[in-house]
């Protein structure tokens, strides 16, 4: 009897907070025995985009001694801000800059899990930070908070951020991308508002997501190819029972097509990023050299994917209004 291997739906897997559960297992290794190491192996095999070296290094910085000491300053009598208060301040940007900075600084004292309720408000208002007059300090702090959230809810965070940074025309049409859309076509990440390309803190986030989705796309295609090849191999065996072995040309062809698609994605991403680094007609005579230098720093390849060559280093002090 012909059977297709059972697997969990993508919708179900998207709802599981994988990275958060990994962190919980890490803190309970004595109680859970060897479960943590087994989970890490599964994570590296099936979700390589959640195992980027940069993320592990970033997590060490976020959970290190200095962040712990900062959180100790957050006493029970400290002022609390709700998501609604944060939303109202975002709506008044840039005139509400000082108030927004006060709330964001408070949020930096929270742990990653405590910051989760603010994730949707932070990401949905990122487009407002592209307007003239927003201080670089606000942008840098939002970048910091985003990286903290990335340690516990990367997949959901990436989807919300990609949708928030879409050009205004797409936002008007209410075009929303899903996790599956972004794994199939990682270049969607680069179809953002073009002002992102001249905002180093948000460009740093965009490059991080691009690198992750290029890895996710490879894992998705490998998994899809394996499932379909096994299913068709079983069907072929049944239909050709008693005959000589059939050539493996279909499988080879699918493998070659997959590799060609992945190579095309990487090539297109690099080409787009190189074009982003070129000054426009206005910038050639407008003295935007320091801003372009800040953009080119993160874009410089770092040995994998589209590359992030050192995060947000080299950012200029302020973005020209």
UniProtKB/TrEMBL annotation:
Cellular-component GO terms for this entry: integrator complex
Compositionally biased residues, Gly residues: 302-313
InterPro entries noted in UniProt: INTS2 (IPR029321)
Gene Ontology BP terms: snRNA 3'-end processing
Pfam families per record: INTS2
Start and end residues of each stretch annotated as Disordered: 286-321
Designated name of the protein: Integrator complex subunit 2
Organism of origin: Synaphobranchus kaupii (Kaup's arrowtooth eel)
């Amino acid at each position: 009897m012909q059977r297709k291997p059972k697997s969990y739906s993508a919708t179900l897997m998207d709802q599981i907070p994988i990275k958060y559960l990994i962190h919980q297992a890490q803190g309970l290794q004595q109680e859970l025995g060897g479960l943590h190491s087994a989970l890490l192996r599964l994570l590296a095999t099936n979700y390589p985009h959640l195992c980027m070296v940069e993320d592990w290094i970033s997590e060490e910085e976020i959970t290190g001694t200095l962040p712990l000491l900062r959180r100790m300053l957050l006493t029970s009598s400290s002022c609390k801000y709700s998501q609604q208060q944060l939303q109202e301040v975002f709506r008044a940007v840039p005139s509400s800059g000082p108030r927004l900075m006060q709330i964001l600084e408070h949020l930096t004292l929270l742990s990653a899990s405590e910051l989760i309720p603010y994730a949707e408000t932070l990401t949905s208002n990122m487009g407002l930070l592209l307007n003239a007059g927003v201080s670089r300090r606000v942008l840098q702090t939002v970048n910091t908070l985003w990286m903290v959230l990335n340690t516990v809810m990367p997949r959901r965070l990436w989807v919300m951020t990609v949708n928030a940074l879409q050009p205004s025309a797409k936002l008007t049409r209410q075009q929303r991308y899903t996790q599956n859309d972004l794994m199939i076509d990682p270049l969607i990440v680069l179809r953002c508002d073009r002002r992102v390309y001249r905002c180093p803190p948000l460009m740093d986030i965009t490059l991080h997501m691009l690198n992750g989705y290029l890895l996710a796309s490879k894992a998705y295609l490998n998994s899809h190819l394996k499932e379909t090849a096994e299913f068709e191999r079983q069907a072929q065996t049944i239909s050709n029972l008693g005959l000589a072995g059939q050539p493996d040309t279909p499988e080879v062809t699918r493998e070659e097509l997959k590799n060609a698609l992945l190579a095309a994605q990487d090539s297109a991403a690099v080409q787009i990023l190189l074009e982003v680094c070129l000054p426009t007609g206005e910038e050639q005579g407008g003295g935007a050299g320091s801003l372009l230098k800040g953009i080119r720093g993160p874009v410089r390849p770092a040995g994998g994917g589209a590359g992030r060559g050192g995060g947000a280093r080299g950012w200029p002090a302020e973005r020209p209004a």
